[in-house]
Amino acid sequence: MDIRTRIAPSPTGSPHIGTAWQALFDFVFARKNNGKFILRLEDTDKVRFVPESAKQIDETLEWLGFEVDESPSKGGNFGPYIQSERLDVYRKYADELLEKGLAYNDEGAVKFKMNKEGSTAYHDLVGGEQSSRGGKDISIENSTQDDFVMIKSDGFPTYNFANVIDDHLMEISHVIRGNEYISSMPKYIQLYKSFGWTPPQFAHLPLLVGSDRAKLSKRHGAKGALEYKRDGFLKEAIINFLALLGWSHPQGKEIFSLEDMIKVFDFKNFNPASAYFDETKLEWMNGEYIRRMPDEELTKRLQDYLVDHPAKEKIAPIVPLIKERIKKLSDFIPLTDFLFEKPEYDMEVFNKLKIRDIKSAVGKILEKVKQLKSPWDAKEFEGTFKELATELKISNLDMFQLIRAAVSGQLVTPPLFESIQILGEEETKNRIKEAQEFAS
RNA sequence: GCCGCCUUCGUCUAGUGGUUAGGACGCUGGGUUUUCAUCCCAGUAAUCACGGGUUCGACUCCCGUAGGCGGUACCA
Hints:
The protein is mainly α. It has 3 domains: 4-206, 3-Layer(aba) Sandwich (Rossmann fold); 225-339, Glutamyl-trna Synthetase, Domain 2 (Glutamyl-tRNA Synthetase, domain 2), CATH 1.10.1160.10; 342-439, Arc Repressor Mutant, subunit A (Orthogonal Bundle), CATH 1.10.10. 44% of the residues lie in helices and 10% in strands. The chain is built from 18 helices and 11 strands. It has helices at residues 17-32, 53-64, 87-99, 159-169, 185-195, 225-230, 235-243, 258-264, 279-292, 295-305, 319-322, 332-340, 347-351, 358-371, 378-392, 396-408, 416-423, 425-439, and strands at residues 4-7, 36-39, 103-106, 109-112, 119-124, 136-141, 148-151, 174-178, 201-205, 208-209, 275-276. The strands form 5 sheets. The chain has a 3-stranded antiparallel beta sheet. α4 (159-169) packs across α5 (185-195) and α14 runs antiparallel to α15. The structure holds one RNA strand.
């Protein structure tokens, strides 16, 4: 059987990170089995519909590299892939059930007549005894279910009805979704049965929760997936981090690629307990990816990220200096802005150094700098100022921190000599002079 | 209320009856480093929700309880 998975978000806003998380597993499972990954828009809630979201969903999947095989914008043989354009389809199947006497009209809506006898059992691919984790059998009493609306009075189907019709018509082989749908499984199974269809396989994923341990949603602090892009996270880090939420690598790996995950993926490695999204660990992982990235690649990523940066074409030499100092692409700016614009001096910064007479010390530095023969040599530079430190009876540490402050206005910067080289000798002298004037 | 899912360090997790309950993030301390960071080393932290069984032996199996979350919508 061909493997076909689907991500079926409802366009009610920018997709949050939980949607991206589910898409990851749909995508990975499809790719692992040379199957198809499908995007279907479930825009059946006219009230909550947000026009922008379809575009943002595409953008999110594209950013993460989850290439869809069939979708509203891409098309496919089972389309349309947007439910508002399939109203006649749902109507047709609703009529079929009406004819069979399995559904009835009620105040303008069409409702499904649940059989409340017995119970519904199915096998879920996620969870199971700790010892095997081969999935679990779930059974729910049918008496817990009520008749439910299939077609609303506005002519739109409900999720409960449309997802069954579309999953069958689009030949979805594996339904991967959040476990908030487990309780409704009797509805879906009975629907499949009433049409004489074989249900697909089901994998109900654990819930992603917010800091309050409630299901992740906008209200509960869920950030939009694209916000992470804006914040300077790398897609590789996001994917890797998401993969580790509820799922674990069979070899215990912490850092691994999407390709690697596709090779080893198995539902049995899911932990069915809810997981909390800890952004601190994401930041660590993002830093990890940044450090492992070749300089050229990181330069390119930074340039793509820093769209409005005035000097983005000139950042290549800076990249090696900041690579181990940033966790997110956005960290580049505060760390390097002194290289592109004059610093604003603050006496507080200078006062942190154990130097009595800042002004005269800076003056001495300026003199020494003027005497250095061009081009400046790192060893000579270092030697010169160590001597000056001894002469002024201050520590080497304070000496170099003073130079750093004079040149950048800060006490934390990329390596000093390299930064000075990027600034240029003239600019460096100018800044030291300005610092001296400021200290007066 | 009823039904379902879940319960291992603060967080993400490993764990297939016998382990000093392992790893990662975080945090703390130390080393390298002219700042910061990186890197390295060490440490911290889980009476495995609780109570009963079963067993020579239970985090692992069974029963129960509690708690959390989810569902119980013409939301998805």
